[in-house]
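Re: that backbone. Tokens:
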């Protein structure tokens, strides 16, 4: 959903300040606000706390310790944007709302050869792929890291 076209009623809003006012836009992965002399470009996963204060302000506290304040021209607009951002940063209601599942469905429809070759070879292919990823990421399997088959049949831990 990003970048959002200026005509999109849900995604873009002018901020107060006359000719020097900015624009705020929201996607499913990023909050962008521009207001002279600078801009905010915040990944939604970085937002730890969002609160509406003093009727016209949204305060954003991030996981990296940074805090931001966005001013709106009306209480209604501030409440609407607070709700929109909260909807995007809250955990998904359905598992299908997670991006990875939607992307996987799209990739299957587009019949990518990586997906078709791994699904036909079964478990051996998954393990071979896992080993190749360990090599690609250069994990030291002789040191602290190791691969274990202790939970292969899920009796040790049924959820992992």
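Recovered sequence:
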């Amino acid at each position: 959903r990003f970048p959002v076209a200026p005509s999109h009623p849900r995604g873009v809003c002018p901020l107060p300040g006359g000719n020097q006012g900015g624009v705020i836009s929201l996607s499913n992965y990023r909050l962008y606000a521009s207001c002279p002399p600078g801009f905010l470009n915040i990944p939604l996963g970085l937002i730890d706390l969002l609160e509406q204060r003093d009727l016209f302000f949204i305060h954003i506290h991030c996981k990296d310790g940074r805090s931001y304040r966005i001013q709106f021209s009306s209480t209604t607009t501030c409440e609407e944007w607070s709700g929109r951002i909260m909807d995007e940063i809250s955990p998904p209601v359905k598992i299908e709302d997670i991006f990875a599942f939607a992307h996987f469905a799209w990739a299957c429809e587009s019949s990518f050869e990586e997906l078709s070759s791994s699904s036909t070879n079964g478990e051996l292919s998954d393990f071979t792929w896992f080993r190749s990823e360990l090599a690609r990421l250069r994990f030291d399997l002789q040191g602290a890291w190791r691969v274990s088959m202790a939970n292969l049949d899920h009796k040790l831990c049924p959820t992992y």
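The longest strand covers residues 47-53. The radius of gyration is 22 Å.
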